Amino acid sequence: MGVKLLLEKANVPGIRSFEVYRREGGYRSVEKALKEMNPELIVEEVKKSGLRGRGGAGFPTGMKWSFIAKPEGVPRHLVCNADESEPGTFKDRYLMEFIPHLLLEGLIVSSFALGSNDTYIYIRGEYAWITDILEEAIEEAKAAGFLGKNILGTGFDCNIHVQRGAGAYICGEETALIESLEGKRGNPRIKPPFPAIQGLWMRPTVVNNVETLAAVVPIINMGGDEYAKIGVGRSTGTKLISACGNINKPGVYEIDMTISVEEFIYSDEYCGGIKGGKQLKACIPGGSSVPILPANLLLKTAKGETRYMNYESLSDGGFATGSMLGSGGFIVLDEDQCIVKNTLTLARFYRHESCGQCSPCREGTGWMEKILYKIEHGKGSMSDIDLLWDIQRKIEGNTICPLGDAAAWPVAAAIRHFRDEFEWHINNPELSQTSNFGLQHYADPIHVPA
Amino acid sequence: MSEQTLFKVTIDNITVEVPAGTTILQAARKIGGEVAPPAMCFYSKLKGSGGKCRTCLVEVAKGSEKDPRPMPKLVASCRTTVMDGMEVKNITSEKVVEARAGVVEFLLLNHPLDCPICDQAGECHLQDLSFEHGKSGTRYEFQRRTFKKHDLGKNIQLHMTRCILCYRCVFTADQLTNKREHGILDRGDHAEIATHIEKSLENEFIGNVIDVCPVGALTDKTFRFKNRVWFLKPMDAHRDCPTCSGRVTLWNRGDEVFRVTARKDEWGEIEDTPDGQPGWICNTCRFDKKETSDWVIEGPREINRHSVIAQGHYSGKIGTTKPNETFTAVNDGRTPQLLMDIHDESEVNQPSIHLSQTKGPSHGETFNNNKA
User: Fold this and answer.
1) In the prediction, which pLDDT does A439 show?
2) Looking at CA atoms only, how far is residue B141 from chain A in angstroms?
């Protein structure tokens, strides 16, 4: 069993209520932070912990916090990004649904560290029932004196507001989230200025993922140095992985980033192997926007080393032979899955979710989807593959926000690693409608019989 | 008052000094010519515009004197401010040229290319852009997108298929009128400019959206299908208008005023009035005053654009040079033989000579012999 920091108490009956959560040792970090520490000290602890943003980009949280501008007389804000919409990622939903007070606890401590008296949770519109859970938890915490005016008699005021989105993936991008929170159309802003200088209502703002803020709780409780001892290298602490796809045990798992990908997929403690005794074909290890990896490159790096479930190991080899840990949406594809269809599904998602503000993303995502649709339905030609490659190259890096990159990477990686499957589709237009390319040479090194 | 800090910035190996806070695009425009990146969505008179079309992408090869690291990605020059000692590559960067060609392709992807029936043709920024930075063909083989038609009232014609979603008209309505009535509906490639509920745009200054529109998406209904812009003579004129500056350009043919626009500078942006305010004009001046008697004519308008409307017009200052002299000047002193002169000399054109008797069409030699 690996170390568990966030989901340790998730199975305690009634942990959703304040009473049980408090009895299990909850809100200790608030007492410690507000009574024994000052904001600078908390930021220092988070820096020491080496905590990296859990939303996908993996930016060091402590550093992000230290960037926040502190002009005299201007309120600052902390915004919790709970707009978890990346296909394959559902770890924040699990956390908020089962232990909402953990998030609130992290939010109060972080608000104190950043000096935010009005803290917002921007929650995905589809998570309607979680909004109710969070609001109930906020009421409970308020009644117990952990929220509201003069928290625990320390003179620190903090209110947490829950705001529901209206169903847009793009509002998970921090500046689009801020725009949406302000009541405007959720278009990403052009950076600079960064939110740390001019964010919500042009005030200094920090936007953090749910899991990042929840991780502040164990950091304060155990100290940054202790937290940094968990994990490996620059991947410290624990990470929630939401595993889905063709596996025996889909779900949210907390890992300490020292286990290998192989262990994660095949051990009974985690995914429990590929469903139906089939073979592993490919995997998208960090949410739909990170590059897909074929089985041979997923379990071992190009250098032949074992690949581990952490930031560095998964990105080993760059985009040529590696991927990213991203948000931890671990999507497993077995031998029966069609990569072209999978890529089309992702391309359709990004086309639908593009905000339409900047031209490469607006026009390019739709174009890619149409070409992939053509190939998938047996009407493609060989030049289409090169065209797709060229389009994704012209989108990547040329857009306002990372959605352009997120749309380009899956297509690029699919062509990079599975070009022969695309070619097979084009060469066998009729056969590809009824049968599958299968595994061919992307053989799974470990075959587990049913 | 402290003195304004000047930053040195080098764009395509040309160094220019600009005040701190200037964007790369504005600095490049100060140099002018091909160094200035094209801009489809940026409009210096509109706060918050820019960054969307991505045509003005440039490569920053050196961040600044203090931090010489290059920027990892191409940046939108219209929204990136210069740093002291910054080195920017525009047309000298292959990456930029390629990315820009890509952006032009994206912009034209769903554009109907109905230039032959578009009122904007001739003064269209997208035409200029695709001519200068685009490729000759498209690789798009699917149906172009279409939209449900929206009527914006009696003055403004909306062609959503031509729109490139630059948001300029949205900013214009936000910043010029008290209440914006149109905006972007939907998202992604089905985003469109529209009023949420069918509504005509009635504000006194809303006509300016026509001037800021870089393409033919918003055009003047009172000028619709009346004439091609390159047949019209632009004349500077003014009138004593109670609501706006009244400084306009009349687009005439003979004595007839075909349309009225604000005065635009060489970047296609509205010129400032002498008191330094942007010279937006009101709907009355734009749509209703279509008689020369309404206006005090100042003289021919200098069209300083590379666009087709500059052709056959006044390319110099007021009191223009005659075309002949211009030809001579650009031909290193050689006077061209005009086709008309050759026709005069040709026997084919002389009714007195029977066609069977002619030696065939005349050419330069016949012309020179007869002249001598």
Assistant:
1) 78
2) 9
Under an 8 A CB cutoff, do B52 and A400 touch? yes
Strand, coil or helix: A215: helix
* Residues of chain A contacting B60 with CB distance shorter than 8 Å: none
User: A351, B188: Cβ pair inside 8 Å?
Assistant: yes
Q: DSSP for B137-199, please give it.
A: S----SPPP--------SSEEE-GGG-----HHHHHHHHHSSS--EEEES-GGG-EEEESSS-
| Residue B27 in tokens | 């600095």
Which of A362, A366, A370 is opposite residue B165, by nearest beta carbon?
A: A362
Find all residues with CB under 8 Å of B132, minimum gap 6, and list them. Answer: B38, B306
pLDDT at B299: 85
Neighbours of A206 (CB within 10 A): 26
Q: Report residue A363 as tokens.
A: 């026009």
In this prediction, residue A447 carries a pLDDT of: 40
Q: Between B199 and A369, whose confidence is greater?
A: A369
- The CATH code of the domain at A235-334 is 3.10.20.600
**Domain made up of B115-137+146-223: CATH architecture:** 2-Layer Sandwich (3.30)
Domain assignments of chain A as residue spans, ordered by start: 18-229, 235-334, 339-434
Cα–Cα distance for residue pair A390/A385, rounded to 1 Å: 9
Domain A339-434 bears CATH identifier 1.20.1440.230: yes
* CA separation for the pair A77, A118 (Å, rounded): 6
Chain B residues in contact with A356 (beta carbon < 8 A) = 165, 184, 186-191
Structure ipTM = 0.89
pLDDT at res. A271:
93
Facing B188 at nearest CB: one of A352, A360, A397:
A352
Domains of chain B: which residue ranges? 6-104, 115-137+146-223, 229-310, 339-371
CATH homologous superfamily of domain A18-229? NADH-ubiquinone oxidoreductase 51kDa subunit (3.40.50.11540)
User: A239-245 and A329-334 as β-strands: parallel, antiparallel, unpaired?
Assistant: parallel
Residues of B in contact with A185 (CB under 8 A): 183-184
Q: How far apart are CA B279 and CA B208, in angstroms?
A: 10
Q: Minimal CA–CA distance to B9: which of A283, B21, B24?
A: B24
Candidates 3.30.200.20, 3.10.20.740, 3.30.300.10, 1.10.287.70; correct CATH number of B6-104? 3.10.20.740
**Is residue B190 within 8 angstroms of chain A, CB to CB?**
yes
Give the pLDDT band (50/70/90) at residue B306.
low
Interface test with A, best of B47, B80, B105, B182 (most A CBs within 10 A): B105
- The residue of chain A with its CA nearest to that of B185 is A185
* pTM for the structure as a whole: 0.87
Q: What pLDDT is recorded for position B192? A: 92
CB-based contact B298:B114 (threshold 8 Å): no
Query: Do residues A238 and A323 make contact, with C-beta atoms less than 8 angstroms apart?
Result: no
